[in-house]
Amino acid sequence: MVIEKATPRIPADLLLRQTLSRRKRLTRGDSAWISRAVFSYFRWLNWLPENAPLPQRIEGALELANRFALNPAEVSDTELLRRAVPEWIGAHLSLTGEWVRALQTEPSLWLRARKGAVSDLKNVLGNCDPSGFDRFPQSFRYTGEEDLFRHQIFQAGAFEIQDIASQAVGLLCAPKADEIWWDTCAGEGGKTLHLSDLMDGKGLIWATDRSEWRLDRLKLRAGRAGCFNYRSRAWDGSANLPTNTQFDGILVDAPCSGIGTWGRNPHSRWTVTPQDVSELAVIQKQILHNAASALKVGGRLFYAVCTLSRAETWEVAAALTEQHPELEPLPLENPFKPGSVPVTALTLWPQDTLGNGMFVAGWRRKA
Ligand SMILES: C[S@@+](CC[C@H](N)C(=O)[O-])C[C@H]1O[C@@H](n2cnc3c(N)ncnc32)[C@H](O)[C@@H]1O
To answer: Is 312 helix (H, G, I), strand (E, B) or coil?
Structure first.
């Protein structure tokens, strides 16, 4: 039913969440199997016989997923590049075998523990992958099957479910306690909560978004996480800013085509269009340009998107640098490659993050 009803406006992941939450009698194992079947279907779509009945196609997708997990070399890069992503994408980013292989690999579930809570949390949850990244001391992968949203310690605010690439954005922002930050596209607050934790709950974060229902969700999450150093307002990205405050730090985690999430969310490979990419690039440039005017001298501005198209990443960053001579690009070290030479814009590929893909660029306002 989810597979047949999913559309660009009602994506498979949303439909799946809604459907599973209504079916109270399903066991955790049933829900996990259904989710895996739906995602495998869209991940292996171009390998499935077109005229076969749906149950047979789903079975075929699960078999392909199992075989790829056991022996990835069985499928060549050439075949993956031809079938795993839509043809148009080749004109928008550097297509590599590593990237499409990462897209066909079942994604990890990354958690972010509140500061100081990581070892207790791992003991309580169990089923945690001991490997991780040195620069991410609060992050680890959960490999168990429990519904973490219902877990008592989740309700008590001990951790957030947050992809590692999103966590990288907070680490790169590196806000200091007592600074004043603006999270311009805060949505449901994933990064607001991370910034707040990094600031030890001190200072202040303005959390704005065009969508008020998302900000309402942020309030619920903030209450659970014990995050009180924020203020939320609606803002639509226009020149009419929500406040006259000049900020120490601004994060523009802009709306995007989400190509960086194609591994976790394979349905969107077949719904995003080149037109979405070009329309979103216009919106990203506008939000970034308007937000930049609220930066203090010496303040830092960060642009992040969970997408990888050149038009929404490098070209947006280059346009801002050109339009704003008062901003100088800020060198950033790739947190997944400690010791690498800092660069002014980072493309974080899923094959390196073991999570989503992400682009981050930073600037400092000159004196
Ligand atoms: C990538 S999501 C933000 C995710 C969020 N920062 C987090 O970490 O959970 C982008 C957000 O931009 C918001 N948005 C879309 N268009 C906007 C606009 N013109 N001005 C401000 N926010 C906008 C969306 O409502 C969405 O919440």
So the answer is: helix
Whether 181 and 148 share a structural domain: no
Rg over alpha carbons for the chain, rounded to the nearest Å, is 21
Residues with CB under 6 A from ligand 1: 166, 185-191, 209-211, 214, 235-237, 253, 255, 283, 287
Mean pLDDT value across residues 344-349? 97
pTM for this prediction: 0.97
Average pLDDT, the chain: 96
β-partners of residue 69 are none
- 306 flagged as catalytic: yes
Dump pLDDT digits (tens) for 211-247: 999 999 999 999 999 999 999 999 999 999 999 999 9
What's 187's domain CATH number?
A: 3.40.50.150
Domain extent for 171:
164-365
For residues 27 and 145, state if they share a domain. Answer: no
